[in-house]
Amino acid sequence: MTRAQAARQVKAGIYEVGAIDRDRRLFDELIPLPDGTSYNAYLIQGSERTALLDTVDPPKIDLLFEHLEQLGVTDIDYVISHHAEQDHSGGIPAMLERYPGAKVVTNAKCRDMLMDLLCLGEEEFLTVEDGQELSLGGRTLRFIKLPWVHWPETMASYLPEDRILFSCDFFGAHLATGTLFAGEERAVYEAAQRYYAEIMMPFRGQITKNLEKIKDLPLEIIAPSHGPIYDNPRFILEAYRDWVSDKVKNEVVLAYVSMHGSTKKMAEYLAEALIKRRITVKQFDLAELDLGKLAMGIVDAATLVMGAPTVLTGAHPLAAYAALVVNALRPKTKFVALIGSYGWAGKMVEELTGLFTRLKVELLEPVLARGYPREADFAALDRLADAVLAKHQEIGIAR
Ligand code: FEO
Predict the structure, then answer these.
(1) What tens digit of pLDDT does each residue of 4-16 get?
(2) Residues with CB under 6 A from ligand 1
(3) What is the position in ligand 1's atom list of the atom closest to the CA of 226?
(4) Which residues are within 8 A (CB) of 220 and not within 5 positions of it... i.e. 6 or more apart?
(5) Hey, whose CA ends up nearest to atom 3 of ligand 1?
(6) What string of H, E and C letters represents the secondary structure of 340-351?
(7) Is pLDDT at 3 greater than 50 in this prediction?
(8) Which fold is adopted by the domain 8-244?
């Protein structure tokens, strides 16, 4: 099925009825969406009752209603809310207005957040516990708490009769596509990795526990709330296990900004020196930063090198911004080094290292050049490349 804006059948009696948002380019006014996104909502029809799993971002609510009309849905008994963030919950008040008999089904924490965020009354809710089941007649929704993907209240629904896990943000991908099923598409893998890096990575430990919690569920389909549906769940489960594992790669993310070319020269020299030592280098110019690409780069790179000139005695603000973002994302990076050029004096190193409060990293010797780098500076960059190689050898990822 390729038509985007129509209700899409997942299986008989199960439909994706949400909205594809091809035009959205930013999420949370922070995260770039180069490929748009979708807000998936699922209609499940049992022999006695009908449930809607999540809604859509409020500006797209008319599309959800249109899809329900296409399917001839006149009654909805339950609106399941897996996550209080408004791209999934924001349509609930309008749903309740249109389907006044519906109850919002969620856990206590999510209920309280929905009452705060959407000004809903407690009487609108049916509150469920972890593992509790709700029969629709011939189909059963089992609620599974999977906290911190990526808010504290998040949960999923498992439909044992059809072996489908409705995982909400967990396993999602910001990808606007009319293709319903992911298969093993490279584009889906990359979008899911970008999503993991930007949204899930700070909660790596909790995600590991959640993967463990669902590992014995028989699964034919994982249906997230963003992007295509996984008809081969192994594809995304293996990717997640790899991303959350403690394994790092023999890679350096080299993110720099340069005003007059001196720091750029240092970054380029260091990149060559690392490549000569058979270390993969992912280079980013922070002046043209795509936050998502930087986040993807640090999913499993062993080392981060940041290059920053000194501005007004401190770090260039673009480098400070990138450092703040990396610190918030809490990658499993093990080593960090700073390089950069300065004019007369400065506190670039102190400022940037002071921003890495949440990273458990070993800081390598910085390399600072006064003005344009010269022989002694290049020699120091060679020593830094040697130090990176030695560290990678120590942890068994380089020869
Ligand atoms: Fe897709 Fe956390 O909302």
Answers:
(1) 478 999 999 999 9
(2) 83, 85, 87-88, 150, 169, 225-226
(3) 1
(4) 162, 163, 164, 231, 233
(5) 85
(6) EEECCCCCHHHH
(7) no
(8) Metallo-beta-lactamase; Chain A (3.60.15)
